[in-house]
């Protein structure tokens, strides 16, 4: 039996310990805010926080995070008002929106690590997250806004 | 050649405008009116347009009926139906916003309800071809004006005053003379009893009184849900007892399953069943390819189970498809005469007599859509009823195809449209929904079919591959006197009809025969090309190779004559005029020529605007260069200037992009900007990396590591968008697609300016490193 804490709630799993965390979150725990984009840690759509670190849940097994604290987009802020979420709305970042949960989690992790990232630091830190609609300019602006106070 | 301009008409070629002959009354009879406060309205006549569009020629045409699209609750909440699919363009916001504008609803008290697939009720729902705003601006205004008028009539009756004395203002109706006011909610029940004003008698708002339209800064309705993980896409649908499936499909188009061994898969924890999926022979429109499905309790187990399957395939007639060899075939075909589609003057003679002939042979490979959300669908089939939840661009078409595939009546099929995690044309094909329907029927349980990224790349409907060969003949003054353009590419029509070797009218109409330059001798030709994989619509479609070739050639002419790119371009466009190419039944994005002519004044205008705002000719640092390109597509006009920087190792970066768009009358400039910003990035992706190749019939790329797209660290640093203010009666035109085509040639022209290297083959890849 594997135990994990997701968004503050204890969850357990007694199936395949190699099951990627992504599919545990989406299909077993019903937390569908975390998205599948590639399955190979190439696009960042599945990004969640494990303790305070951004992790690609598609290649992280449920066993790898046993006993750890996981935060998904649903648990980032109780009313959805994390500075990154607010900045995203202020800048009208999304087009289709599918990658944005992963982008927001990545940005939240970046700002915990580096509260005032530079232009280049934002572009580098966010480059593991693909947006096919091409919202990059606005993502960068939103991260910058979140870092300077929304 | 069939006249085909959208997926629905291509589906079996049987769709036409027959529905227009059915009276609206018979269509509406029996429709359940939901909620007690829907505005009741008699059936309305067809729209009376200020200008004609092709909307009425789409399958099921247009329905202008407030009873279908608007309801007002007693608490005043106005619900407006969005009947197009939201894939990132903002259409789920912008069309309801038009209704709210006209009916004087307060946007903060409006809810948007997504329509299910039902074109008899809602009119055409095919969200493709960049046509939602251009087909629905006027109908949505009429729907809003009808609702407003009925609310006003109800208030006037209540007060016993003439209707001319009252008017709706911001969610209430006001009688200025007496100072009385009634909210929309208070009037809803009475308004529902009012008869609908005739469409001809409707008074539309004066645009100067618009609060929302053309103003910008309206956030999309899903903004909060997207940022909190609540927005629901195809894969986010969960039903009680639902099974999770992935499918192993034939690796080669037209291949078939010979045998499979499920034993190892069945031993995987969580795998419940392995079953064969019915496939259709190639080509078969959007029908499933068939294969073997692994059914499991979660997607992870299904994928692991599929990896363990032992499969034997017969690759069929396309087992030797090879991109290197195929390119040679296309190039050779481009060097010989082909089917002549447009002939003006005598290009052969003029080329022979020219002082100088410039030849450009341009190659643009297959591309994959790679929307971030891979194809996915949920189906629940019970007996002769089916319910689908899917991110589809064509909900009405999906409904038709599910019904046909299952052999059940169309009215027994419900298609619920989720948000689309990107579409780009891929989700105009509902194969994934058909797979889910087939599996659910056989399992007797709800099932979700999830495509992996590898599936998306290996079994999609790719953008075509083409060689565009242009020969430009110049006289001794450097004036272009002859133009021969041969386009060789497998057609989308090959996915619908075996043996197709020529491009369809809608493909040749995308930048080949509608070429706007003022040249005396023109020949546009289409040599034959057979398809060896499924070809489909990709955002901007044939405009991508055409704009790349034509606008690169402009750069080459500037280069050969030592003239400025922009001046060369304007000289080729020539005088302000309406271009009427000598082409029989010229395809014009489905629009009438009268409303949407090829207008070189507008083409010139976007060039001049982008040159002014984008500071064409500005000094740039060493290693930098500027390039320009313009293209008319989806009846919009777009010009782009790209600044590149190429370092001494050949590393390419894009410091700045400027784009001017003339899309006629527009609704939400904020979303126009976002579409154009995104188009630059998609354009950069396809120019820099975009290439799907085949070997032994199989796609060689697997995922985002070998089919790369641009990431943030290499995206343009600044993208500026300038929107041409519309004339008072300029019809709206496309926005979603037109931004992509001019980007690659502007980039390539800029690279030439920076490095002196002329790239004629996409993607750029490592060409700058040599």
Automatic annotation (TrEMBL), chain A:
Matching PROSITE patterns: 2FE2S_FER_1, 2FE2S_FER_2
Iron in keyword set: yes
Alphabetized InterPro entries for the sequence: 2Fe-2S-bd, 2Fe-2S-bd_dom_sf, 2Fe-2S_ferredoxin-like_sf, 2Fe-2S_ferredoxin-type, 2Fe2S_fd_BS, Beta-grasp_dom_sf, Diverse_Oxidoreductases
Oxidoreductase is among the record's keywords: yes
CDD domains, per the entry: fer2 (cd00207)
Database matches in SUPFAM superfamilies: 2Fe-2S ferredoxin-like, CO dehydrogenase ISP C-domain like
Record Gene3D superfamilies: 3.10.20.30, [2Fe-2S]-binding domain
Domain 2Fe-2S ferredoxin-type positions: 1-76
Molecular function GO labels: 2 iron, 2 sulfur cluster binding; metal ion binding; oxidoreductase activity
Keyword annotations: 2Fe-2S, Iron, Iron-sulfur, Metal-binding, Oxidoreductase
Protein name: 2Fe-2S iron-sulfur cluster binding domain-containing protein
Organism: Bradyrhizobium cajani
UniProtKB/TrEMBL annotation, chain B:
Gene Ontology molecular function: oxidoreductase activity
Aldehyde oxidase/xanthine dehydrogenase a/b hammerhead domain location: 228-317
Pfam families per UniProt: MoCoBD_1, MoCoBD_2
PANTHER family assigned to the protein according to its UniProt record, in alphabetical order: ALDEHYDE DEHYDROGENASE (PTHR47495), BLR6219 PROTEIN (PTHR47495:SF3)
Designated name of the protein: Molybdopterin-dependent oxidoreductase
């Amino acid at each position: 039996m594997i135990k994990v804490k997701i968004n503050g709630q204890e969850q357990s799993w007694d199936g395949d310990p190699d099951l990627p965390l992504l599919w545990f979150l989406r299909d077993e725990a019903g937390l569908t805010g975390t998205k599948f984009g590639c399955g190979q840690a190439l696009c960042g759509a599945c990004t969640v926080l494990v303790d305070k670190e951004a992790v690609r849940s598609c290649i992280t097994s449920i066993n790898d995070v046993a006993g750890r604290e996981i935060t998904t987009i649903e648990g980032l802020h109780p009313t959805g008002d994390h500075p990154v979420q607010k900045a995203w709305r202020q800048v009208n970042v999304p087009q289709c929106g599918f990658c944005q949960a992963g982008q927001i989690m990545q940005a939240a992790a970046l700002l915990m690590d580096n509260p005032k990232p530079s232009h280049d630091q934002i572009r580098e830190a966010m480059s593991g997250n693909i947006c096919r609609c091409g919202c990059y300019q606005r993502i960068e602006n939103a991260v910058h806004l979140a870092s300077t106070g929304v | 050649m069939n006249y085909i301009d959208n997926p629905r008409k291509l589906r079996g070629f049987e769709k036409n405008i027959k529905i227009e002959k059915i009276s609206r009354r018979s269509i509406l009879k029996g429709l359940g009116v939901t909620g007690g406060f829907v505005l009741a309205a008699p059936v309305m006549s067809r729209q009376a347009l200020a200008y004609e569009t092709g909307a009425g020629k789409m399958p099921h045409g247009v329905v202008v009926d407030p009873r279908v699209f608007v309801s007002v609750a007693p608490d005043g909440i106005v619900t407006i139906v969005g009947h197009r699919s939201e894939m990132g363009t903002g259409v789920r916001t912008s069309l309801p916003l038009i209704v709210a504008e006209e009916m004087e609803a307060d946007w903060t008290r409006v809810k948007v309800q997504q329509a299910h697939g039902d074109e008899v009720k809602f009119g055409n729902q095919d969200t493709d071809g960049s046509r939602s705003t251009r087909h629905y601006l006027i109908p949505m205004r009429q729907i809003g004006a009808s609702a407003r008028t009925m609310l006003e009539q109800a208030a006037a009756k209540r007060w016993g005053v003439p209707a001319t004395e009252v008017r709706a203002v911001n969610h209430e109706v006001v009688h200025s003379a007496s100072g009385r006011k009634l909210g929309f909610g208070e009037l809803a029940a009475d308004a529902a009893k009012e008869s609908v004003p005739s469409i001809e008698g409707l008074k539309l708002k004066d645009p100067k009184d618009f609060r929302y339209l053309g103003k910008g800064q309206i956030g999309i309705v899903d903004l909060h849900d997207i940022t909190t993980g609540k927005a629901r896409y195809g894969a986010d649908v969960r039903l009680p007892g639902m099974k999770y499936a992935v499918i192993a499909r034939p690796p080669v188009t037209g291949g078939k399953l010979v045998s499979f061994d499920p034993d190892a898969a069945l031993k995987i924890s969580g795998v419940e069943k392995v079953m064969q999926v019915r496939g259709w022979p190639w080509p078969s429109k959007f029908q499933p390819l068939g294969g073997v499905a692994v059914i499991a309790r979660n997607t992870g187990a299904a994928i692991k189970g599929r990896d363990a399957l032992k499969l034997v395939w017969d690759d069929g007639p396309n087992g030797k498809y090879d991109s290197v060899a195929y390119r040679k075939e296309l190039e050779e075909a481009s060097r010989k005469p082909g089917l002549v589609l447009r002939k003006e003057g005598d290009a052969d003679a003029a080329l022979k007599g020219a002082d100088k002939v410039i030849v450009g042979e341009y190659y643009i490979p297959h591309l994959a859509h790679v929307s971030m959300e891979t194809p996915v669908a949920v189906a629940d089939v019970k007996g002769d009823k089916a319910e689908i939840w899917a991110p589809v661009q064509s909900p009405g078409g999906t409904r038709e195809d599910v019904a046909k595939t299952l052999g059940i009546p169309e009215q027994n099929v419900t298609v619920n449209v989720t948000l689309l995690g990107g579409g780009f044309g891929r989700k105009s094909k509902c194969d994934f929904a058909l797979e889910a329907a087939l599996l659910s029927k056989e399992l007797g349980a709800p099932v979700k079919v999830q495509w992996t990224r590898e599936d998306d790349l290996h079994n999609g409907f790719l953008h075509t591959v083409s060689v565009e060969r242009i020969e430009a003949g110049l006289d001794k003054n450097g004036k272009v006197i002859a133009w021969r353009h041969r386009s060789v590419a497998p057609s989308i029509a090959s996915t619908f009809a075996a043996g197709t070797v020529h491009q369809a009218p809608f493909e040749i109409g995308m930048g080949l025969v509608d070429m706007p330059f003022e040249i005396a001798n023109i020949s546009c030709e289409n040599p034959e090309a057979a398809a060896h994989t499924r070809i489909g619509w990709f955002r901007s479609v044939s405009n991508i190779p055409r704009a790349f070739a034509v606008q690169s050639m402009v750069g080459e002419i500037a280069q050969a004559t030592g003239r400025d790119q922009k001046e060369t371009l304007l000289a080729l466009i020539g005088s302000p005029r309406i271009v009427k190419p000598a082409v029989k039944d010229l395809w014009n994005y489905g629009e009438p020529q009268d409303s949407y002519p090829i207008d070189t004044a507008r083409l010139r205008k976007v060039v001049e605007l982008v040159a002014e705002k984008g500071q064409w000719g500005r000094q740039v640092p060493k290693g930098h260069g500027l390039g320009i390109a313009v293209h008319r597509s989806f009846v919009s006009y777009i010009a782009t200037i790209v600044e590149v920087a190429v370092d001494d190792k050949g590393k390419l970066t894009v410091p700045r992009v400027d784009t001017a768009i003339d899309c006629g009358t527009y609704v939400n400039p904020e979303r126009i900007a976002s579409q154009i910003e995104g188009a630059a990035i998609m354009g950069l992706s396809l120019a820099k990396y975009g290439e799907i190749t085949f070997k032994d019939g199989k796609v060689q790329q697997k995922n985002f590591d070998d089919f790369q797209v641009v990431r943030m660290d290499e995206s343009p640093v600044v993208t500026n968008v300038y929107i041409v203010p519309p004339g008072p009666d300029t019809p709206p035109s496309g926005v979603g697609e037109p931004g992509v085509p001019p980007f690659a040639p502007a980039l390539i022209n800029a690279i030439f300016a920076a490095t002196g290297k002329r790239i004629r083959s996409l993607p750029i890849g490592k060409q700058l490193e040599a």
